[in-house]
Each structure stands twice: as C-alpha cells, then as structure tokens.
Design brief:
mainly alpha
C-alpha cells in the first residue's frame, strides 16, 4: 500500500502521465485503480491533508524567504 500511495504522489508531484511511472512501482492499472477509489471515497483528500500536515510539521521544515 505504501508503494501505491508513493506512486500516486509521484504522478501528482511531477505532473507526469500514469504511463510514465518508473518500473519500480506496481503496475499503473493497480495504482490508477486505487487513485480512483481514494478520490471516489473522499480518502484522497484526507491523505493529501494528512501528508501536507506531516511534511509541514517535520523538524527540518522551515519557512523559506521569498526570492524576488
């Protein structure tokens, strides 16, 4: 399940197509099926919110100054 979630975030973070997933992930049909299920059940929004909360609360996460 961890690889499936990682693959979903990989696609969303990189903006690539499902077919462009690296071969180290499970089959894209499996990943896309779970993505559709998460989205349909509202779990995807929960996972995204939780993920952003976890990464924002990481000890190394500090606000960076804006570049101009």
């Amino acid at each position: 399940m961890r690889q499936i979630v990682d693959a979903i975030f990989y696609v969303l973070r990189n903006g690539c197509a499902w077919r462009d997933l690296p071969k180290d992930f499970p089959p894209r049909s499996t990943i896309y099926g779970w993505f559709l299920r998460f989205r349909r059940e509202g779990l995807f929004a929960t996972i995204t919110i939780t993920w952003s909360w976890l990464t924002a609360s990481a000890p190394c996460a500090r606000p960076r100054p804006r570049r101009r």
